[in-house]
Amino acid sequence: MTNADKKNACFAATTPLYYVNDVPHVGSAYTTMALDTLCRYQRMQGRPTLMITGTDEHGQKIQRTAEKHGRSPQDHCDQVVGSFKDLWKQLNIQNDRFSRTTAPRHQAIVNEFYQRVEAQGDIYLSQQQGFYCVGCEEFKEKRDLVEEKFCPLHPNQEAEWRDEENYFFRLSNYQEKLEALYEANPNFIQPPSRRNEVLSFVSQGLKDFSISRVNLDWGFPVPGDDKHTLYVWFDALLGYVTALLDPEDEPTLDNAMAKWFPFSLHLIGKDILRFHAVYWPAMLMSAGLPVSDRVFGHGFLTKNGQKMGKSLGNVLDPVALLGTYGSDAVRYYFLKEIEFGRDGDFNESRFIDTLNADLANDLGNLLNRTLGMAKRYCNLTVPQLSGDSFAADHTLKQLGEGLGDRVSTAYEALAFRDACAGALGLAQACNKFLDQEAPWTRYKEGDQAAVESILYAVLESVRQAGYLLSPVVPDLANAIYQQLGFEVDFNNKDQLGKTLSYGEHSQWGMLPAGQAMQKPSPIFAKIESEPS
Ligand code: MSP
Questions:
Q1: I want to staple 97 with a disulfide (CB 3.0 to 4.6 A). Which of 25, 77, 182, 243 is the partner?
Q2: Is CATH 1.10.150.650 correct for 347-505?
Q3: What's the CA-to-centroid distance between 256 and ligand 1, angstroms?
Q4: CATH 3.40.50.620 intervals, the chain
Q5: Which pTM value belongs to this model?
Q6: What is the per-residue pLDDT across 297-354, written as a single tens digit (0 to 9) for each?
């Protein structure tokens, strides 16, 4: 298989590997739920999909946090990793890999990669002077610091002056190659605002960056010089590659690249764009490897319009939110209410209003009342009709036809809000349609054919809407499908591309005639409480 065939055939995508200096925050949950949604969609399209997430466990930040807690770094990492895994379970994340940078086989991959880059002549020893932000694990330009001391992202932590011998990576060698990459692949960095940011940064001239530290133990030694420890970002980005290995594989680059490489997508927050869109492709080029297809930098979340931070005391705890509202509610709010790529806000009243309006009312109540009528008028059996029984200009058929393609375009572009709005628009149209067509009146008039036609069209539309929303709200989609009489499971990866394939289920008109349905029961309970 050529690289091009491979790219078209499969989808390997990553979240960042999260730092384990603290329990997971809502920002990490945001990236992870977005990638999980996209991967579910890819699986529905029948594409072999590998979703990678994991943890970034080396470096000064982690070492110091562990010391503060009086634990060994490894013990500390093991504990925090547990809370990430628990959170992903609670959020219904179906990652295929969980890559830990402290995994022994990761070191073998890092060493091999380092040696390739070294053989290319892209590593040299020199003196590094500058201000280092331990929070970002990054050297900062003086002009980027507030009051000459503080990095804007970590205002409580003074950047530290460093003057030490480090190994450097010759990033400057890749200026032209990177510019050619951006030019030839306009979609390499998305959305366009982030692309412009990177283009402007690169056009100012790329400087070599240091890839080792002295006076730091917690990390891998530089191959051939164990007085130096590898820079945490050099090791972390390679965690994506290690994740490609099957469990039984020998840890070699060839094995890692045999099946899924190159990556289809790195989904990240906007603060770590340079590492993924500049440093990482240059590192891959240096090692003679193909670069990834796409880097998407999403925006930052605020709470009630304010930046979140421990010192501000307004951190939104994803575990608490999930405990109160459940995974579908949380996934739906963040993906439907915020334009992916831009900054967005969490506000509990708006959260409750959105869920009640969209999931409890427009969709949930619609299914409930329609199944109620199906029980009264059709013995809970899908009427003997199909999509073809309806004229092309039928209100719901017209809306439903083409919807699968429009929603697919939205998912491919990571426009989750548009995907949700498209599916929900159909449910809203159904509510209007029912009110206009008044099947209860037709029933009284004895027009059974009209009743059945109305109910089929609405039930089919609810099914289609539920299907199209399923990557975002898989449990809700399960409830809809079960009540419509299907025996399927949107949380079963193996079913997605087969019994639940997008080709068949995204189309309007496939609800099987004569299928026995279930008694209506609310699929999404209205949230009554107001925020305290
Ligand atoms: N360890 C590095 C990534 C290495 S990848 C090889 C790292 N980790 S992190 O835990 O600090 O950040 C993880 C992600 O959370 C980043 O994508 C970051 O953008 C995101 N967020 C952190 N705070 C956020 C918000 N307030 N809102 C949205 N996302 C935020 O960086």
A1: 243
A2: no
A3: 25
A4: 3-298
A5: 0.96
A6: 999 999 999 888 766 788 899 999 999 999 999 999 999 999 999 999 999 999 999 9
